[in-house]
Design goal:
CATH class of the largest domain: Alpha Beta
Distance between the termini: 9 Å
Number of strands: 37
Low-confidence stretches: 1-21, 73-79, 213-223, 346-350
CATH superfamily of the largest domain: von Willebrand factor, type A domain
CATH topology of the largest domain: Rossmann fold
Oligomer: single chain
CATH architecture of the largest domain: 3-Layer(aba) Sandwich
Number of domains: 4
Helix content: 10-25%
Structural class: mainly beta
Largest sheet: 7 strands, antiparallel
Shape: globular
Number of helices: 7
Length: 568
Amino acid sequence: MLAPVGLFAGSTGIEGQRPEIANALLVDVRALGPDGKPVLDLKADELTLKINGQGRPVRSVELLRFARQPGADQGAPPPAVLPPPFATNQFAAVGRDVYLVFEDESISPSNDDPPRQAALRLLDALEPRDRVAVATVPRGGLNVGLTTDRERVRAALAQRLGRAATYENAEDSACRTRRTLEGLMSVYSGVWTGPAASVVFFSSGVLPPTVEMTLSNTRLGGTQSLCPVRPEEYQALAKAARASRANTYVVYLIDGAVTGVLGNNPAGLESVAGVTDGGFFSLGRSNPGLLASVAVETAASYVVTFDAAASDQEGKLLRVDVKTTRAGVKVRSPSELVVPDRRGRVGSRSKASSATEMLRVGQPFLDLPLRAVSFASRNAEDDRVKLVVLFETTDPSARLASAATGAFDSKGSLKAQSTSTKDDLGVSPAMSVIAVNPGTYRIRVAATDTAGRGGTVDLDVKANLSAAGPLSLSTLVLGASGGASFAPRLEFRAASTAIAYLEVYGRPGKADVRVSFELVAGDGDRVLARAAGTLRSTSFADLRLATGELPIATLPVGDYLVRAVLSV
């Protein structure tokens, strides 16, 4: 019988993470061929760059791949891709993040199927490792965080996506527009994977800028401004989108509009696409596959590096113009760039006052690089599941000063919390233990270091034991020998062996239980090594510990799969 998957990370660190380049600025560029697929061999001498109308030499061009080779046989099954061995708050090109955002107050309940079908088609075109989030704006209500669980996303999309009234007057349209722009800014503030992320916004219409509605106030004998939709609101949206570095796609729902001041007018949505440098689609009932191109063109992107000038001060807005000399290739880039601060951040970030405070807010904190993983096992005291959360900073110079771990249910409610002690943080990886009822949770680890930096990392976990015939199993954990005890690890460097650890629960009667462990290549097919497992009894009659030692000294750098095979 197969146990849950354990993952072994090679010594490459986080794929796609780059060290900062001194005195350099970065701009994201996407290059598409005549067929709409990414061009993967663009060179620096094929690009021209102007900043504020003046030419700047291109220092380097780096290709980032987020999906399999564009142009591969789409009818063939995708190559096996291991999930990332841990969650991280640093940019990692292990897949894409797609945010499906529906402005439900502009979508008629009777016309919410076209956006649903378009979103489902896009979902089918993504790769298994791509994460998807679903949200409604402006008031929320539907909120599924980034996850690779496709059934969870499909269940969310099956809910009602349209809540618009049958008629909307000018005042309602203006106030809804203001709230929607604020909701979109909130979405962008939670994006932290840069060009690997895409925000897909579905709406039947918002008001364009420079529209100001007035409401007669007879008691005061005059008029007062109500919900002005000014250029400043759109400028704030543009700033949030630029800071996130995400791709934006605006989907205008032709058949979804309600009657009122907007009618079937896409001008406001065209303004949203314009200020976010986004793509624009018009979606009707006859073209549900319209968004398939999103999955194709976001498969790869370039980071173009150029030297900063003395006048490029922190916070300054720069106009950007990128072109290519290669025939038949179109390049897309932001029209503007904000000079980041010394830590590479654009705009202000919330200060990390405490780990507990960061735990309870929605936005990510990125100053302190963190990674984490969680394992499920039986809770000795009751029927809950014990989640062991391992976390560490990837900055070798950092020392953790405080940390808190929380488990949030699908409604965003905090169900369990743990605060780490000084002794807990004295080892790496640090360990936190919380007990929850069986189910699916978002685990957040929040931490600060002795320099005052703060960081958070989020991961989706299933708090369940795995059934194996008459037995049940914990999550398989990998580690090394820490003297007389087992020491779990998130990554292996300069190690000759990896120890697999598994808890086996239940009483199989007179049946003989045997266990072995296999080290499998990333394609999921080739077994590279096998090890006989040892079962050890404990003080609990229905609990045994299975361990095995796998050789890894000669393995090339990379990610591998470890699985346990039980026979009863």
